[in-house]
Amino acid sequence: MNQIKRAVNFLGVSRLVVIGFLLLLIVSVFPLGINPGMIYSDCLVRIGMNGFLVLAMMVSIVCGAGLNFGLPIGILCGLLGGSIAVQFNWSGLAGFWGACIVSVPFALVAGYFYAVLLNNVKGSEMTVGNYMAFSIVSLMSIAWLVLPYNNPKIVWPITGVGLRTTMTLEDNYDKVLDNFLRIDFKQMGVLQNNPYWKDFSVSTGLLLVFAVGCLLMWLFMKTKAGIIMRCSGVNPGFSRTLGVNNNRVRTIGIVASTVIAAIGINIYSQSYGFYQFYSAPLMMAFPAMAAILIGGATPKKASVFNVVLGVILFQCLLTLATPVANAVINAGSISEVVRIIVQNGIILYALTKIRANGGK
């Protein structure tokens, strides 16, 4: 009983309810006749492809800037680096990492100026960050039309000017991390007579990259710089008495968050198979924010455990809810409706936990 009480106190009743609902969805695929191997594989892919964006949200919280509604700024830097990689036909693992490396300088510059802005509007970071992201996305919508791209695969076919709304990565580095060291039951000939698990696969490379990112972040938080950053975020007044420059710490955290988001969108896009431009990055901060809040973070405290738990809960709920609803309610267009309801419902739930978790 004591162990159960500790588990309840550690996770919280509301979080246990979410975990219970997720377990119900996981089990329900069997009686409903849904292919569990395929749907569980999709859950693993979504965890890996969204993990870095949630990790970027954690750094912003730890440094004291709160929930990073300006995450699309880093995402736009990653899209800029990725579009340059495709412009020059980079491919394979080298092309993917090249896109990430090219994205970093843009993210460093954008993150620095974004940090300067947030340091001047302390207490209103989330509001200012939200409107800043909306403004930058609109500005970059113009930039995608006027930047000198000329690769016929990515520009509009009639005018030859401006990026297309969607850029395919099929000839570049589509699923290059997903297929690295991939464990595929169908290709291996494992359980081919089992209708449930013959389609199961593990995107090993994608999950390894996310695991390495989490490990590096956990190790950084154990260093002197990480402890100072955490102290500055939780209690800036106390850290100031110790001689810590809170503005400098916040700047480092916001720049790091922007860089991680730039790398994260490249990881997301290679797994998705496309880059999406113009208004696509506009709302991408909200799923990352909801995931880390459901994982147990607050606008002042966050950990790698919150990132891992949150991305598992959010992405698995989102992935499983749609096919389960389709099987229960036989209607043609119900899947998209359910996806929107579940995604926005989880985001709304996470937002209600801000004050409940102490984020005043």
Automatic annotation (TrEMBL):
Compartment(s) of residence: Cell membrane
GO cellular component: a single term: plasma membrane
One Pfam family of this chain: BPD_transp_2
GO terms of molecular function: transmembrane transporter activity
Membrane topology: Multi-pass membrane protein
Keywords: Cell membrane, Membrane, Transmembrane, Transmembrane helix
Transmembrane segments: 12-32, 44-62, 69-90, 96-116, 128-147, 200-220, 249-269, 275-297, 304-325
Family annotation (InterPro entries): ABC_transp_permease (IPR001851)
PANTHER family: ABC TRANSPORTER PERMEASE PROTEIN YPHD-RELATED-RELATED, SUGAR ABC TRANSPORTER PERMEASE PROTEIN
Name of protein: ABC transporter
Organism field: [Clostridium] citroniae WAL-19142
Taxonomy of the source species: Bacteria, Bacillati, Bacillota, Clostridia, Lachnospirales
